[in-house]
Design a protein that fits this description.
7-stranded mixed β-sheet; 45% helix; alpha/beta; 3-stranded parallel β-sheet; 406 residues; 14 helices
């Protein structure tokens, strides 16, 4: 009996020792939190995966880490209150130092306002804001998106280099009520006129309408071959919606035409599903991802017709804005310093060349020093970088307005 008791005491002592050692070596809880709101995998997989990458690096709040991730609804246009509630929820955390939202869909501005009421000191960063720049720019500390203004010229120029004689712009009314998207569309039209490319607008179903994402994608699958027949194999196709991108790439690769880049350029957006590529082994390795996609495109005989940025912009917008927020919180960067922002984006994009500019409103001429536009050079599979990032975009395109009423 005494032997048994001694064994029990010894086992208890060992358990206590192991427990104490584990406590001694456990990582300390994060001193502050960063909130990130992205789309779901269905609406914006790349931005979602960017949040996962940052959780892997800095830890999840629920496990004592730094990052708390939430998503906005798939039908975000009709469920803005959910988006607003999520922002308020994050701001209610006393350890929350910054909130990053990518994409900053409708509801972001009001959500930011309410978050600021709760926490006047909290940092608010918006990626790819859908709302008017002059509205969201007055609430957020920083707004950042891909350079949609110069893209209006660069994409048409690139399409022309690929032999395009027609540019087919695919969108729908909701997107054409968005200031940034409509301004780019107006620049597209002007660039087409100047560069000798026929401009065409085709309407496709809104993925947030009753037909949903599946119905919208099915429409593209059925109609892109008809458009290729109608406009010819020298037509270049472009869509404003992520959900439309996969069927567009699939049918362009199959039937002809060119695709310079997505509205939010990424090798992960559309290409894997469109081309039937499993990238699970290459996850997070963008050079390997690009190599595998290029091999499939070459095998399909579509070399020189499909392009993207070598690093996913939606992915980098999430990781870059979070890195920037951390640097600002820790006193290593200034919020509206362009070089500091580019430094944060470079952390997850080795080898890529980023450039940036400050947004100037096309209607009022107002310069928003906290609204930054970033870009990478376009890579054409089977051809290489096309040099669009080095273009000197004529100033007249930068002054074209959307024509929407402010």
């Amino acid at each position: 009996m005494k032997v048994r008791n001694r064994l029990v005491v010894l086992l208890l002592a060992m358990c206590i020792t192991v427990f104490c050692v584990s406590l001694a070596y456990a990582a300390p809880a994060a001193k502050y939190h960063i909130g990130i709101i992205t789309g779901t995998v269905a609406q914006g997989e790349d931005e979602f995966r960017g949040a996962e990458a940052m959780i892997a690096k800095y830890g999840d709040v629920k496990d004592g880490g730094m990052i708390q991730h939430m998503t906005y609804p798939n039908n975000f246009a009709a469920e803005q209150e959910t988006t607003i509630s999520n922002l308020v929820s994050l701001a209610s955390d006393p350890l929350m130092k910054a909130i990053v939202m990518n994409q900053a869909v409708p509801g972001a501005t009001e959500g930011f306002r309410r978050a600021r009421e709760i926490r006047p000191d909290i940092l608010l960063l918006a990626g790819v804001a859908h709302e008017d720049p002059l509205v969201v720019g007055r609430v957020a500390d920083l707004v950042m998106r891909n350079d949609f203004i110069s893209a209006g010229y660069r994409v048409i120029w690139a399409a022309k280099q690929l032999g395009a004689d027609t540019f087919v712009h695919v969108s729908f009314p909701r997107h054409m009520s968005v200031e940034t998207l409509t301004r780019r569309r107006m620049i597209f039209e002007e660039a087409c006129n100047d560069l000798g490319v026929k401009w065409v607008f085709e309407t496709a179903p809104d993925p947030l309408s009753d037909v949903g994402i599946v119905g919208a994608q099915q429409y593209l699958l059925e109609n892109v071959p008809k458009w290729v027949d109608k406009y010819g194999k020298n037509a270049s196709f472009y869509c404003t919606n992520d959900a439309h991108t996969e069927p567009l790439i699939r049918q362009v690769a199959e039937y002809g035409g060119t695709f310079v880049e997505a509205s939010l350029p990424s090798p992960l957006l559309g290409f894997p599903g469109a081309l039937g590529i499993d990238l699970s082994n290459e996850k997070g390795n963008f050079p390997a991802i690009m190599k595998k996609i290029e091999e499939v495109i070459e095998a399909k005989g579509a070399s020189g017709r499909l392009g993207t940025w070598t690093y996913s912009f939606p992915f980098c917008a999430t990781t870059g804005l979070i890195e920037h927020a951390i640097n600002v919180i820790e006193g290593q960067s200034k919020m509206t310093d362009m070089q500091d922002l580019l430094k944060a984006f470079a952390v997850h994009t080795p080898g890529a060349q980023w450039a940036g500019s400050i947004y100037v409103d096309g209607t009022t001429g107002e310069r928003l020093d906290n609204y930054m536009l970033l870009l990478q050079d376009t890579y054409i599979f089977g051809r290489g970088y096309i040099g669009s990032a080095a273009l000197d975009v004529p100033e007249k395109y930068l002054k074209i307005s959307s024509g929407l009423t402010k």
